[in-house]
Amino acid sequence: CTTPLGTATEDIPAHQPVMACILRAAMPLHQGVLDVWDRADSAFVSAYRKHQDAGFDIEIEYLGAPKMEGRAVVLIDPMLATGASLQAAYDALCETGVPASVHVLAAIASEEGLANAQKLLPEGTSFILGGVDADLNEHGYIVPGLGDAGDLAFGAKTRN
After folding, report:
1. What are the phi and psi torsion angles at 76 (to 5°)?
2. Could you report the per-residue pLDDT of 128-142, keeping only the tens digit for each?
3. Which helix (H) or strand (E) holds 76?
4. Domain-embedded: residue 3
5. Contact, 78 vs 26, CB < 8 A?
6. Average pLDDT of the segment spanning 86-106
7. Are 107 and 78 in contact (CB under 8 A)?
8. What are the residues facing 102 on neighbouring strands?
9. Which domain holds residue 19?
10. Could you give the CA distance from residue 20 to residue 133 in angstroms, rounded to a whole number?
11. How far is residue 8's CA from residue 86's CA, in Å, rounded to a whole number?
12. Alpha helix positions (H), the chain
């Protein structure tokens, strides 16, 4: 590559990384990442919290992804609250093959969510976080956090 200041030789990987967007909250962050890694492949995972009684389960309704086998994957989720969505998304992506490396990109994580993700995701997973907040509330949301990132970006959901 050549810049006004000089020339550099770069190794280009055989396969571009896969930017995995957890719908819908991660869509704005995903688009920003693609502005930088414009040749990266994309994966889309629809993961949502299905609330029941005092807790919730993570439901995967949709997966659109290239083969993950041997690829670097960046899991993009603006709020790493409990780590459950990341784990469910990772498991769904692995149905297309096991990635060579995993990286997590989040604007904010909770201490608990980060600890859970470090235990649940493969050894060597790297975390790129804008900040870490101490607490989760009784609904599993980061405190103080930002609120529901998907609702902030796209408006309140009409149904869960």
Report:
1. -110, 120
2. 999 998 888 887 778
3. strand 72-76
4. no
5. yes
6. 95
7. yes
8. 73
9. 15-154
10. 23
11. 36
12. 27-36, 84-93, 111-120, 149-154
- How many structural domains is the chain composed of? 1
Find the angle CA(21)-CA(70)-CA(86) to the nearest 5 degrees.
30
With respect to residue 50, please indicate whether it lies within any of the assigned structural domains.
Answer: yes
Contact 96, 67 (CB under 8 A): yes
Q: Considering all CA atoms of the chain, what is the largest pairwise distance in Å, rounded to the nearest integer?
A: 62
Question: What is the rounded average pLDDT of the residues 81-91?
Answer: 90
| 64: in domain | yes
Q: Give me the pLDDT at residue 127, please.
A: 98
Q: Residue 54 falls within a domain, yes or no?
A: yes
pLDDT digits (tens, 9 = 90+) for 40-61: 999 999 877 676 777 777 778 8
Q: What is the pLDDT of residue 33?
A: 93
Local confidence band at 157 (pLDDT 50, 70, 90 cut-offs): low
Domain of residue 146, CATH code = 3.40.50.2020
